[in-house]
Amino acid sequence: MAQRYALMIAPADAADTRDDYSGTFTPIDVTAPALSVGELSTQRGDGVFESIGVVDGHPNEVEAHVQRLAHSARLCDLPAPNLEQWRQAVTAAAAHAPLGEGVVKLILSRGVEHGPAPTAWATASSAPDYTAVRRDGVRVVTLDRGYDLGAGERAPWLLLGAKTLSYAVNMAALREARRRGADDAVFVTRDGYVLEAPTASLIIRCGDEFLTTAPSAGILHGTTQLAVFEHLESQGLATRYAKLSATDLATADAAWLVSSIRQAVAITAVDGAPLASDPALTAELNAFLLSPR
Amino acid sequence: MAQRYALMIAPADAADTRDDYSGTFTPIDVTAPALSVGELSTQRGDGVFESIGVVDGHPNEVEAHVQRLAHSARLCDLPAPNLEQWRQAVTAAAAHAPLGEGVVKLILSRGVEHGPAPTAWATASSAPDYTAVRRDGVRVVTLDRGYDLGAGERAPWLLLGAKTLSYAVNMAALREARRRGADDAVFVTRDGYVLEAPTASLIIRCGDEFLTTAPSAGILHGTTQLAVFEHLESQGLATRYAKLSATDLATADAAWLVSSIRQAVAITAVDGAPLASDPALTAELNAFLLSPR
């Protein structure tokens, strides 16, 4: 996922209504220094981000991503982003993504310590080759997230519904999963409910119904999960937000981790016990997710 | 706390035993770009740090800070820092701190995504003027940390004992405290125990005894708390690590938040209820903490 293009964004006020924000974008050399050591993104993980899948130059689900960026900014008391400016930044960056699969990443940082304004930038990269994992699936382990299911609503300062730059725990959970011989992790609450993966949402199938954990402040609302649910519903399939126990996952008829870049991957084992999978549906979901949307 | 000096550090292997690491330090312009947008510190808060108090050019508690940097790095699966290199970096940066009170900050980041090595740097800044708050104290609110007291030991991937760059929650808690009309926060576990403040340790006095929360993986082990305990013990006073309930704090005979830069500040109110304080002891603690150690 080597970055190939980046532009700095001079954040416009949310109330600004100009048509063309290209004058607020400054392309930079991705390998050159661009951020000062006073940046609060780097000192404290203090900012929010989005990763957008790009297929043959077309960024997918842009509106869901910029809306979530604004939601995350609100939870973090950051100045409201100008959504049209960010839409145009996505377009500008996506134009430099490679053919095939790419990534546009948006970052809104609180800025330089005691500085006047947030720092913002967008990057374009090629995506890793996920062909094999989309075909073969992932083995997951369940990892305690420490919180109970109500923590997010009870304590909004825990920022559980914001996609912040403070991702050290997510990265540590992925390392722990690999140490246990698995490929990925699913976080479980102290009271035994499954939440999400460190960088993906969880969808399970029980009988004829597709289920995901309700995003009631305790988890991110996954943009890819939303797209998959809309797709399933358009085919007349039943979807539902629910409280899902760890047992629901272990006994599911099929389960997937879904995210914007890796897309849909089947969970083939949970804590070492095999889980049924549905290769035809997985392939169909990925065909949908990789089409221009 | 405007930064006035910074140096990049080319991390040496922990097994390296040279005498002089000055050749691995590169002074940089603190206001100029120094970090690429691919930095994992900035993308994911993926790294560890320390803030060291400097008084008239003398950095305090250096050994405790570099040892904790190494401890945090170990919890985050980062390459072991070369302690002698970091000690020399502290000395080099502290030489550029202002007269009076300053700060040397150490940062060890996982580096550029897919890059070959961690990124590391140190900065020197002047400290804010904390004279008034050391005299007048702080009003705190207790804020739910979401976890129970055992979470850190049970789930080391939550990194509760590491001083990581993922500080968004700590910053959000401080904003929440100010929204509630207070100056600072004390985190409380789901099961009712007090932990620490977002950027400080908690010490309370109950009768003749000074108590702090046991750092059993659930909180950082405060370098300033350690120094204060040693100081109190040297005067024949009793200190103890304990499980402290929110009621223990609310009914304490006195309480302080202690940290490396602000030093010791009395807690004068908890959730709006006044708390007794001991101005003479607070002043004496600060005189000790601000002396060269």
UniProtKB/TrEMBL annotation, chains A, B:
Highest taxon above the source species: Bacteria
Alphabetic keyword roster: Aminotransferase, Transferase
SUPFAM superfamilies reported for this sequence: D-aminoacid aminotransferase-like PLP-dependent enzymes
InterPro entries listed in its UniProt record: Aminotrans_IV, Aminotransferase-like, BCAT-like_C, BCAT-like_N, Class-IV_PLP-Dep_Aminotrnsfr
GO molecular function: transaminase activity
Family: Belongs to the class-IV pyridoxal-phosphate-dependent aminotransferase family.
PANTHER family cross-referenced by the UniProt entry: AMINO-ACID AMINOTRANSFERASE, AMINODEOXYCHORISMATE LYASE
Protein's name according to its UniProt entry: Aminotransferase class IV
Species assigned in the record: Microbacterium bandirmense
